[in-house]
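Incident log entry.

Two folding requests arrived from the same account within the same minute. Monitoring flagged them as a possible duplicate submission, but the sequences differ. Recording both here for audit purposes.

Request one:
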Amino acid sequence: TAIRVPEGLNGDEIIKTAIKEYDTVFAGGQGALKGKIIRFGHLGYMDDADIDAGLDALKGSLAKMGFKA
């Protein structure tokens, strides 16, 4: 699932924060979308807890970068 990065933020920095702070890996955009989207992978066996953990990592990473929902 591709997620558009909020204006003023960089997707690559969100990804770095998620890895460092939450041990969660997101993929970045490619080509013209580099830094503008992040990709949330959910192939294979996943349950609600896995999705919740990924969303929590995304939410926390955005907050650490100053984004307020």
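Request two (distinct sequence, not a duplicate):
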Amino acid sequence: MLFMEIPTYRRLNIQEEYGMSRTYKLTMNKVEQFKWNLMEQERSEATIEKYIRDINAFFEWLPEGKRVDKPVTIAYKQSLLERGYASSSINSMVAALNSFFSYSEWGDCRIRPLRIQAQTMVSEERKLTKEEYKRLLHAAKEKNERLYLVMQSICSVGLRVSELKFLTVEAVHRGRTVVNNKGKMRTVVLPPKLCLILKKYCRRQRVTGGSIFVSRTGRPLDRSNIWSAMKELAKAAGVAADKVFPHNLRHLFASVYYERFQDIVKLADILGHSNVNTTRIYTTATAAQYQAQIAVLGLLNP
């Protein structure tokens, strides 16, 4: 893709504002060193993969031989806007670049993320309802018992897919499991009914220890295994495919819990969020739900 040249007057303003005098050469070797640094920090595989993918996208956008400086990185952010990327996606890519710049000691290349107003509504086309979840379970029960139980295990306690490996035979017998995610430890209490169902499953499958849900090679199921299996259920359950993905089960748990108890602080603890603002994303309502809430205020006189 062609490099988007910044108008001369704007380029001069940027240079004057930030006092730019240095440029840097981006190389694949530098990116590889950054990857090893992320691994040493014990960042998750998904985070490392995304950061490297975002940096490679920036690398491919740069013209051959073009060096990196503040105007270049600002131009890249602008090009993402012009190509129609969502604001949240742009900020995610900016975060990856800024992390790389900090590691490389290119601090003067760091750029600000876009300012986004807090989202108050979620698209109805993406929000999985409790009724749709039950239809998915019904379809899974007939086609894939393991998936049937995986979905309930994630949705009944709000697990991340990457945390499913901590659901072990030993944890089921204790009634709780300790989850280690991104260096943060939390205890997840397992409902007695879920423990009973999983104990029966383990006896039938002769699973005597370790992770309950594993692949044929004995490795814990990952996101791709579960995602593809769930997509196959969508049509049979009569649920839009865009709504059917593992993380939406965690969203459903959060929205149902919040609707019932209205305690966002406790919900943040259960989900393992360090910041309540992250939890707010999980509790946003649809436009139809907001309309229903506003209607009961009684502020209109027919």
